[in-house]
Protein: Dihydroxyacetone kinase subunit DhaK
Organism: Nonomuraea mesophila
Amino acid sequence: MKKLLNAADSVVEDALKGMAAAHPTLRIRDQVVYRADGPRQGKVGLVSGGGSGHEPLHAGFVGYGMLDAACPGEIFTSPVPDQIIEATKAVDGGAGVLHIVKNYTGDVLNFEMAAELAEDVEVASVLVDDDVAVQDSLYTAGRRGTGATLFVEKIAGALAEEGAPLADVAAVAREVDERSRSFGIALTSCTTPHAGKPTFDLPETDVELGIGIHGEPGRARVPMAPARELAATAMDAVHGDLPLRGDLLVMVNGMGGTPLMELYVVFAEVAAYVEGKGARVSRSLVGNYVTSLDMQGFSVTVCRLDDTLTRLWDAPVDTPGLRW
Amino acid sequence: MKKLLNAADSVVEDALKGMAAAHPTLRIRDQVVYRADGPRQGKVGLVSGGGSGHEPLHAGFVGYGMLDAACPGEIFTSPVPDQIIEATKAVDGGAGVLHIVKNYTGDVLNFEMAAELAEDVEVASVLVDDDVAVQDSLYTAGRRGTGATLFVEKIAGALAEEGAPLADVAAVAREVDERSRSFGIALTSCTTPHAGKPTFDLPETDVELGIGIHGEPGRARVPMAPARELAATAMDAVHGDLPLRGDLLVMVNGMGGTPLMELYVVFAEVAAYVEGKGARVSRSLVGNYVTSLDMQGFSVTVCRLDDTLTRLWDAPVDTPGLRW
């Protein structure tokens, strides 16, 4: 294993130093990433977080129109309650704070504990569980939270920026989760810096269907196939769970080690699939957004839009990872 | 080798279909990527291009404030003169066209031929040759063009958007090239779809210093080292050729298969190095911009800014790969 790092133990801290140096719009303190211009009085604060190794999620989505703070844990490890409490108190502008939590047992427990212990701050919480691949998994009771996290953070962030109250921001966040589904396929395993070898063995001839973002097992292991077939497999799983119709927000997301060119090849197939079902790709994203270290592969996330969600998706955003 | 594609022969065409589906601001015709809203009368047109496999370069930089058209060749293969002629004629708004050409023999020849054959269009040309690693290389007489291509496209694109004449746009493009230097380090080889196996052998213990963006050999092969040392090696090469001073634009660029987290680790070291030389990181980019398929590794590109270049760098841009 070759990785660009100084030591496995310092990789999260060292990467955060790089983020701070690269992005003057961020302020980083005690392993929490904040908007440098926050908190804003009267605005609902948005806090998310989770294990590191999924960059740009979450710290790369801190900024105008999205998150107020992100709490990165160690690699694939939940942030500790102290980080979340600190972030929650710091971003409160008097209008309360929304916790956006991916559905993994450790994250859920630590965010719950932090919500209880962040006295004097009104906290609402939304659980993201969009991955249709497995019902329960290695680190989850219920479905895993993956790509839809970005959609929730963007759309709830836009509504918070408009000055909406906490209940409304939480409601739109839940609505986005309910309208979103994801499915991922791995071509290779990820390798964590500490382990130094692939998390799982995957023969050169096979792919893992329904992979999790920590290398958790999916539904099945099948022979490698052309992009068209892999895209159809992922989309069949999504469509089987929430039929595609109307205007869709579609993300083809790279797992970290896959070139952009290949993601565009997949996106072309996904777009053709959507059209074949009589639905429409109304908005889209193609790139590395919710990654799993150096894993090769992709995931697709689909959200059924309505006029309000489209308007909030289109609203200006200014973060290191998403900007328009 | 596992890659997300339908067939090695159709990968460029299929990826362009995906780009067209994902980005309504682009129009793709005969393997040329155009701004859908061009040409603009009275504006200098900017055309670049080169082999595919470096995405988002170049097609991902077509849009407001950057390129008017990009001509993607097959993987690591120059675009043909017909593509370039077609693009040159199509983007001419009466103020002439600037060709931005990376210094590789095939690209240079084909752009030269196209400039001659694009009758009735005034064409100026700028050669990008920022890579300090080697003097001549496998595909080059003189230095290779790498990361500075993005700087040239962005800054010249901004000046063209302001309505400057061709001579001025060409002059600023040349100035950016003269003020920029790059150096890359590979942890792994890339694998082209047609070959299906790594372009070169690199032992698990070694890295290639001064790698080219097609896997061309660099200066030396040395044992893998911590990020701090690799960053210093790259920066020593840059600083040795063009001493760091004043305000710098610094890009830490991933080669395609390297996670963003690792690029931030490298950026932290590069920023510390710059500070140690008494210079300042005034503007920065961290991410996958000028890639080499699935290669793992990074390159660093530095440009010495002045007030004009800073203003043009900061000017609004709206492309799939760069947007602010």
Q: What stands out?
A: The first helix of chain B runs from residue 11 to 22. Chain B touches chain A through 60 residues (CB under 8 Å).
